[in-house]
Design a protein that fits this description.
Radius of gyration: 20 Å
Structural class: alpha/beta
Number of strands: 12
Length: 339
């Protein structure tokens, strides 16, 4: 059984968008199984990360963006083939940003009934959401007669939790939600600054100031908004955010895919299990430790997800047998994983 069988929605942006597709796309040999398991996703990055971020040859006169993106394009199309958004094992929500039209584009299964042009190939969606300005080239493609000129989804939504929750509430009306949100780690002195460093960054900023301005002013306050949702509509315990808030600055470069750094990042992730759950104080924006570890919180969440799945399978079995559904009342909660 895959994560896609336990989560109603899997969401991710940038590299998280690629992971989302890998976890939700069907396996060609068994359409009921995912293309990748979580452990296989880790191995994918260890094996192919160095090639994705391989430096340009010294004679390459094209210096911006930093990487040509050819390997990422080829490997993404190879693994995802012609799989489209409507073929995923569970709902996915993956944002990108159209730098020509200057607005975010949310690739979501929920939208497909009315916005059929969003039913693009997962490979195009992944290349769109991961096209980090100054690092990888924008991704242009056409689907159903609509032209897309896309850059990194993090320009529109650096934290996918709020986008995923919004999609669920908008399109299902269900406000009973369990949310697992996974961060990529931030340093203690993390500041907005890296995008201004270097010729590539300055060149992109000068030519795309409207893109940057729109994204900058529309993507903050995620924790603040979610605190409102989960305190006003559902129990706070239904929202679990796992983040390394004191990441070693030597590991914060997004394009450092060296074996040494990948091993260090994996170790950070495993060490998070023994750390206390931290909940953001929405007045001071300082994470406050709680009296349980991330491992304990994940176990409790897993128990809830397992119980919910059993109830749904039981109801499905009874409905097939044309017998009345009698028993424990199902929570009917939407289960979301966001990266």
């Amino acid at each position: 059984t895959s994560l896609a069988h336990y989560f109603d929605v899997i969401s991710g942006t940038s590299t998280g968008g690629l992971m989302t597709a890998m976890l939700a796309a069907p396996n060609s040999s068994n359409s009921n199984h995912p293309l990748f398991t979580p452990s296989e996703v880790v191995q994918f990055y260890k094996i192919y990360g160095p090639d994705i971020f391989r430096a340009r040859d010294w004679w390459d006169l094209e210096k911006c963006p930093k990487y040509d993106g050819e390997f990422l394009r080829d490997i993404t199309r190879k693994i995802l083939k012609d799989t489209r958004l409507n073929q995923t094992l569970t709902n996915v929500v993956i944002p990108s940003f159209d730098e020509r039209k200057i607005y975010p584009v949310i690739f979501s299964n929920f939208k497909l009934k009315t916005e059929t042009y969003l039913n693009a190939k997962l490979s195009d969606i992944c290349l769109s959401t991961s096209a980090a300005p100054t690092y990888l080239p924008p991704h242009q493609f056409e689907n159903a007669g609509v032209q897309f000129d896309m850059v990194d989804g993090a320009m529109a939504a650096n934290n996918l939790a709020l986008v995923a929750v919004s999609e669920v509430i908008q399109h299902t009306g269900n406000k009973e939600i369990m949310l697992l949100s996974l961060g990529t780690g931030i340093t203690a002195n993390n500041k907005l600054g890296g995008i201004f460093d270097g010729v590539c960054q300055l060149g992109w900023l000068m030519n795309s100031f409207d893109v940057f301005s729109e994204a900058l002013y529309s993507t903050d306050m995620t924790h603040y908004y979610l605190a409102t949702v989960f305190s006003g509509l559902v129990p706070q315990d239904n929202y679990l955010r796992i983040e390394e808030y004191n990441l070693d600055p030597s590991m914060e470069e997004m394009d450092d895919a060296s074996p040494k750094n990948m091993d260090k990042l994996e170790k950070v992730g495993k060490n998070l299990l023994s750390q206390s759950v931290r909940r953001m104080n929405i007045n001071t924006f300082v994470p406050v430790p709680l009296d349980q570890t991330n491992a304990q919180a994940l176990d409790r969440l897993a128990d809830k997800l397992y119980a919910e799945r059993l109830l749904r399978l039981k109801r499905k079995s009874m409905e097939k047998g044309r017998r009345p559904f009698i028993g424990t009342v199902e929570a009917n909660s939407n289960r979301i994983s966001a990266a």
